[in-house]
Design brief:
mainly alpha, 151 residues, 5 helices, 42% helix
Length: 151
């Protein structure tokens, strides 16, 4: 199972994704509060349920360190609790539907004249541009062979 993305956790804790994001975040809270079930029965392992890390990230939603701690706690718990692993996988499928801004783009054009197309956006494929050469800088001399006359 892939670990839960730190960026996704930060975004969800910060309220990204609107109503769906809120539901996914609430679902994660319900998931980590479920009792442990150790694979093969037996004693509950001495690993975090993820609840303390979830509460910590909820208190400081922009803290990537807290998000990393939660991601790690989820991965460790999934390794020792088959039921949790299955439910976490289902949660991750639901979380993929949330738009978190992980691929957000900020476009800036500055620093003079751009000669040719300036394309701003995200995820472009199969584009071809044919443009003329940029204008030559005028060096102030007329040694390019062009005749100039003043009358």
């Amino acid at each position: 199972m892939d670990p839960v993305s730190v960026g996704l956790l930060v975004a969800l804790a910060g309220g990204a994704g609107g109503e769906l994001g809120r539901q996914v975040w609430t679902g994660l809270g319900a998931l980590v509060r479920r009792p442990f079930r150790r694979d093969g029965g037996g004693q509950v392992p001495a690993v975090s349920s993820g609840e303390a890390e979830l509460v910590g990230l909820a208190a400081e939603p922009g803290d990537e360190g807290r998000a990393q701690a939660l991601s790690t706690a989820l991965a460790v718990r999934a390794a020792v609790d088959e039921d949790f692993r299955t439910r976490l996988g289902a949660w991750q499928e639901q979380a993929r539907l949330v738009r978190t801004g992980d691929g957000a783009v900020t476009n800036t054009v500055s620093g003079g004249t751009q000669n040719g197309p300036v394309l701003q956006g995200r995820d472009f494929t199969n584009l071809n541009f044919t443009t003329p050469s940029p204008p030559r800088a005028n060096s102030g001399s007329s040694d390019d062979g062009a005749a100039s006359s003043t009358r």
